[in-house]
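Lab notebook, bench 4. The sequencing result for the construct came back, and we need a structural model before the next group meeting so we can plan mutations. Quick request posted to the team channel:

Model the 3D structure of this chain.
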Amino acid sequence: MINASPAAAANQTTALQAAFRTAMASVCTPVSVVTTLADGLPYGTTVSAFASLSMQPPMLLVALHAGSDLLALVRQTGRFGLNVLSSSQTALAQNFARKGGAGKFSGIPWEVAGTVPRIPEAAGFVACIVHKVVPGGDHDVLFGHVLMAASAGLPPLTYQARVFGTHAPTSAACRD
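Done. Here's the predicted structure in token form:
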């Protein structure tokens, strides 16, 4: 058994984190803004870590940083919205990626849908009630029961290799 020094262990951890970040940058992910409404004010943050979870019942999951202001508000309200941004909404993605919870909606049009903020012109929207919150490293995973869902039929904004883009089909559509 080899006992590495604390400095060597820290270097291995840092190297693994860098390799993991680079590997995950190769994955094309949709860009969305998770929102909630607290005391009549809208709050939101940009995320790329979300997924459809179940069709029966309709559920999805979303990951938020464990120390984020938005996570605390979602825990308080018990509700969140997922606004899947369209390819024309890069500026919104950058705006909502800023640190800090207040003021991100300043000058941004929004409406209440299913008791959470919905961003117009988003490619898709889902309103959820929180079913469960599970810790996952430096993030918490929200499991949400879907209350409503809508699609605008617009191309989604994606993020890959640290740049924004959009989806371009390479073949005929897949059918279920």
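The chain has a mean pLDDT of 89.
Will bring this to the meeting.
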